[in-house]
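thought: fold this chain, then report.
action: predict
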Amino acid sequence: IDDFEVFSTILSALMWRLYNGPIRLYTDDIALSYYQDLGLTDIWDDGIDTETLKNIPDSINQEIFWAAAKLFAIRKETVPFAIIDTDLIVWKDINEILSDKTLACLHRENLDIDCYLPYEMLKKRNGYKVDPLWDWTERPCNTAFAYFNDPKFVEYYTSQAIDFMIDNGEYPKEMVSQMVFAEQRLFSMCAKTKHIDIYSFLEDPFQKENELFTHLWG
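observation:
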C-alpha cells in the first residue's frame, strides 16, 4: 500500500476516535499481518475483525465484487453505526447531525455516470429476480460513508446486495458497474422501497464549502 494510503488510514481511524466514538476494522488475515508489521493495529480501538470476511461464500467473485466485504461487515454490525472507507477522513463531530437520521450517505451520484448501467446491461445469473418495487430512477449514494439506524433496512439491503452477487460471475467490460450497483445503487433503491429518507452530507463531492470530509477518491 502506498504511503499516502497508509497515512489516510491512520488519519481516518484516529479522527473518528477523536470526535465520533470507537472504530473497528474489518479485514482479512493477510491485511492484518501487513498492519501488524507496520505497527498500526492499535489505531482501531474497538478491535479488528477477521472472522466476518472468512464467511463470504466462494460463489461471490471478489474480483468483480471488490467491495463485497463491506456488505458482510454492514450485516454483522448492530445499529446505530457508520461504515467508512479507509480513504475517508471525518474531521468533526457529526453525532448531533446523525441523532435524528435513519440513513445517511456521503453524497448522491448522478445516473448519467458511465458506471451506472441500465438493468438490461447488468450481468446477472440465470433466474435472478429484482424487487418489482425498485425505482430505477433513484440516484445512487456514495457509500464511502454510510450510516444505518434501522435493523430491518440493514437486513433487506444486505440480503438484496448479496443475492445479486451470488453466482454472478460474468465479467463486465470494466470492473466498476457490478459492484456500484450492489453497494451504492441498491442502497438508495432499497431505501425508497422502504420509504426511508437518506440524509446526504454533501450536494457535490467536490464542493468547496465542505469542512467535514476528505475523500481521497476525489
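thought: worth noting. The helical segments are 3-20, 29-38, 68-76, 95-98, 151-165, 177-193.
final: C-alpha cells above.
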